Amino acid sequence: MDAQLRRGLLDVCVLAAIKNEDSYGYKIIKDLKPVLELSESTLYTILKRLEEAKMLEVRSTEFDGRLRKYYHVTPSGVKRIGDFKEEWKELMGVYSFIMEEN
Amino acid sequence: MDAQLRRGLLDVCVLAAIKNEDSYGYKIIKDLKPVLELSESTLYTILKRLEEAKMLEVRSTEFDGRLRKYYHVTPSGVKRIGDFKEEWKELMGVYSFIMEEN
DNA sequence: GCGATATACATCGTATCACGAGGTATAACC
DNA sequence: GGTTATACCTCGTGATACGATGTATATCGC
Prior knowledge:
Shape of chain A: elongated
Low-confidence stretches of chain A: none
Largest sheet of chain A: 2 strands, antiparallel
Helix content of chain A: 55-70%
Mean pLDDT of chain A: 94
Radius of gyration of chain A: 16 Å
CATH architecture of chain A: Orthogonal Bundle
CATH topology of chain A: Arc Repressor Mutant, subunit A
Number of helices of chain A: 4
Strand content of chain A: 15-25%
CATH superfamily of chain A: Winged helix-like DNA-binding domain superfamily/Winged helix DNA-binding domain
Strand order of the largest sheet of chain A: 1-2
Largest interface: A-B, 33 and 33 residues
Number of domains of chain A: 1
Oligomer: homodimer
CATH class of chain A: Mainly Alpha
């Protein structure tokens, strides 16, 4: 997929992957793999950004002697997903324009 | 609309606006306005990039004493629009995932 | 005639962002 | 005991959109 198009989906996609059940970096990558492949460096950048934007909250735990940071979607993060649905409508409008011309 | 999401559409949208009839900067902005607003600085950056990528060809003309640069979509540009249709399918897959989780 | 607006182009600097490369450390498996 | 899986992190780079700013002519209203 085009790099630019990807970028528009990444944040919301990560939020969606966490929303129903708190999750952590390594798991998110595996869960998203069938839908959208993303590297660790990309994901951790996104998680950090979403945390700074207060759309995610973190809870650090220890699991089998390894650090595991569970992320939880805040109401603000839920709102972001909702906004995406509205944006999608606009996106469909642009898509229709492109198709009309072809 | 989200800035990132926009970015994925800009190039193809500009190509689509020119494809059926050669056009020039100022006109493209006006034509796209109902669908997608973009500033001059943004458009000229895009036109330049698409020209360098050989998806557009330029023909400079004089009109009423003013310079006017007509852009024409090359076969390579047409292909770009076609590729977008494929990308859209992938995009729909991601969209479905986001909706499923909500 | 003159100021405002429309037409039409261009460039520079900034902020944002994805991602590859590279790093650390433990657990599990063969 | 070596390889793979799990799990985190950081730095540098290249790409990009966009606001601000600049130049120049034509047209329209008064």
